[in-house]
Structures are given as structure tokens and as C-alpha cells.
Write a structure and sequence with these properties.
TIM Barrel, flavoprotein, FMN_hydac_DH_AS
């Protein structure tokens, strides 16, 4: 019997053992050389924490708010697809472990997109996450080598045929490029706002220019994300551009971070650089693959416990007390040498 993991990284090896290689590679892999995939985690390692001492941390409050809703900790589950490849219970098990985020792709047929948005509203979802960095499918070479075949999407039954005839390659790549709309642009967010009353979060922002454009079109929040390094390789690691986006937004809408979060200290660093909360993707999938609903719950609990400890050892009794002065980045080190 495998030992119980002591941190979320331990679930990755358990997932590798539990899943067929094709499915493990699908979740674990990134685009092309996987430079950004590695950097998403490594960039956190280049940020140090500046703790304060002799402060009252006898009680630690991790609670915060997201779009007006109170949550117990600044940790959310990232919009991720095809949980049933990890576990037969799929998204149901994930949702039982925590309130999962919802995401949509804008299909070439806008009527289908509109029906999916209305379905989300009718089923009690609280927000729409628009993935903005995927006009085409990223080149994920592990999926190409494995010729990955995935089951048809049940949530599209009656709306769109998802049967794709391929030349022997990945049906996932063929399906993605067939359904996505590469013409969707900033002006079309007005259309999306016209068909829903739900707040709209834009996911995939990595520059101050796009952050300012997101404000112009009236989004309700921004998620700094590079799609888990699965789209454009050599795009920047998200933690390295978080502060740029935060400064551009200037407090007008919340900013969240997605990508590379594996430790409570990572969450602490992201919040010190201006994120209101973080989103966690692969560790949740690994927990789901290894131990189902229990595994997802343990991943979230581990991150929560680590964040609480990091806050205590840094002299912060609430998330509001985490400030920019609590971290030092590579840029700060260079400035100190001038």
C-alpha cells in the first residue's frame, strides 16, 4: 500500500501509477519543449519570503471574498477539463470536495455557446470564466505521440456532434480545432455580456496591455494564466507577470493567479504580489486520480494547512496582512545592488 503523501507533490506519482500513460501524459504535459511548464513552478522558487517576528499569530484567519462570496481560504479549483479521465466520478467528485469553477469555450456556432451559458445560469453557477488564450489548440506533443482518444463530451449531447474522424492522430486535437472560434476577440465580450447576468472572468491575461483591455470591455475579474503551460510555450510563468497585471488593474477588479501553485508558500507569495486568491489545477487532478474525492479534499487541506503555517511564521494573522513587503523578487535583488 502506497504511503500517504505528505504534500501535494506526492499525489503526482500516485496519479502516474493509477492512470493509463495516455491519460497521465494528457494531464501532466505542456506545450512543445515544456519550458513554460517547468518555469511555472521554478519562478516561485526565485521569490523569497521576508518574515516579521514577535507578532501575535495565535489565531490565523484565512477567509476572504471572491466576487462578493465568502470563502474559507484564498484557494480555488482552476477550470480544468475531462476529470472523468482521472476518475470515473469526474467533476462530481471534484465538486463534492470543493466548489469548482466553471469554464466554457466559445464555439464557432454562437447559438451553442449561448445555450451553454444559459444552462450554467439555470443550474446555479455564480460566474462564467472565459478562456481567452485558446483560439487554437496548443501543440502538446505527448498527446500527439500517444494518439490520445477521449470520450465524447456528454454536456454537448443534443447541441453538437463531437464525433471526429481523424487520420489516426489525436481526436482531442482535431475536436478542439474544429469547435473553437479563432475570430473571437475583445469586441465579442459585449455579446457574451448581453446573454448573461453572471459576472465574467477573463482567463489568460499575461500583460498590462491585455489587463487594461479587459477593463475597457468590462470584465468582472482577471485570471493571470498561461493555460497551465499547455498553449504557447515560452510564454512567461504566471507569477513573474502577476505584479505587472495588478499594477495595470489598479484595484478596479480582482486579480487571481493560476499556474505552478504547489505549496502554501506559493500562495503566500502570490497574495503578497497582489493576487486576491489562487487557482489550483493539476494537483487537484492528481488527487482525484489517486484517491478520488478524498484525494481532492486532501490536496486542498494540505495547501490550506501550509498557507496557515507560512502566515504564522511570517507574522500574518489574516490574509489582509500579507503585503508586498513580505516577499523579495529577482527584480528586487537587482535593484538592491544598484
Amino acid at each position: 500500500m502506497a504511503a500517504e503523501p505528505v504534500n501535494v507533490n506526492g499525489f503526482q506519482e500516485l496519479a502516474r501509477q493509477a492512470l493509463p500513460k495516455m491519460y497521465y501524459d494528457f494531464f501532466a504535459g505542456g506545450a512543445e519543449d515544456q519550458y513554460t511548464l517547468k518555469e511555472n513552478e521554478e519562478a516561485f522558487h526565485r521569490i523569497t519570503i521576508q518574515p516579521r517576528i514577535l507578532l501575535d499569530v495565535s489565531s490565523i484567519d484565512l477567509s476572504t471574498t471572491v466576487l462578493g462570496y465568502n470563502i474559507s481560504m484564498p484557494i480555488m479549483i482552476a477550470p480544468t477539463a475531462r476529470h472523468k479521465l482521472a476518475n470515473p466520478s469526474g467533476e462530481i467528485a471534484t465538486a463534492r470536495a470543493a466548489s469548482a469553477c466553471n469554464t466554457i469555450m466559445v464555439y464557432k456556432r454562437r447559438d451553442i455557446s449561448a445555450k451553454l451559458v444559459q444552462r450554467a445560469e439555470n443550474n446555479g453557477y455564480k460566474a462564467i470564466v472565459l478562456t481567452g488564450d485558446s483560439p487554437r489548440h496548443g501543440r502538446r506533443e505527448a498527446d500527439i505521440k500517444n494518439k490520445i482518444i477521449v470520450p465524447e463530451l456528454k454536456n454537448l449531447e443534443g447541441l453538437l456532434s463531437t464525433k471526429i474522424v481523424t487520420d489516426g492522430g489525436s481526436n482531442l486535437d482535431a475536436l478542439a480545432n474544429w469547435t473553437r472560434d479563432p475570430s473571437f476577440c475583445w469586441e465579442d465580450i459585449g455579446w457574451l455580456k448581453s446573454i448573461t447576468k453572471l459576472p465574467i472572468l477573463i482567463k489568460g491575461v499575461l500583460t498590462q496591455e491585455d489587463a487594461m483591455k479587459a477593463l475597457e470591455v468590462g470584465v468582472d475579474a482577471i485570471i493571470v494564466s498561461n493555460h497551465g503551460a499547455r498553449q504557447l510555450d515560452y510564454s512567461p510563468p504566471t507569477i513573474s507577470v502577476l505584479e505587472e497585471v495588478v499594477h495595470a488593474v489598479d484595484g478596479k477588479v480582482p486579480v487571481f493567479l493560476d499556474g505552478g501553485v504547489r505549496r502554501g508558500t506559493d500562495i503566500f507569495k502570490a497574495m503578497a504580489l497582489g493576487a486576491q486568491a489562487v487557482l489550483v489545477g493539476r494537483p487537484v487532478i492528481y488527487g482525484l486520480a489517486a484517491k478520488g474525492e478524498y484525494g481532492v479534499r486532501r490536496v486542498l487541506e494540505m495547501l490550506k494547512d501550509e498557507l496557515e503555517l507560512a502566515m504564522s511564521l511570517s507574522g500574518c494573522s489574516s490574509v489582509k496582512e500579507i503585503t508586498r513587503s513580505h516577499v523579495r523578487t529577482k527584480h528586487d535583488h537587482l535593484l538592491s545592488m544598484l
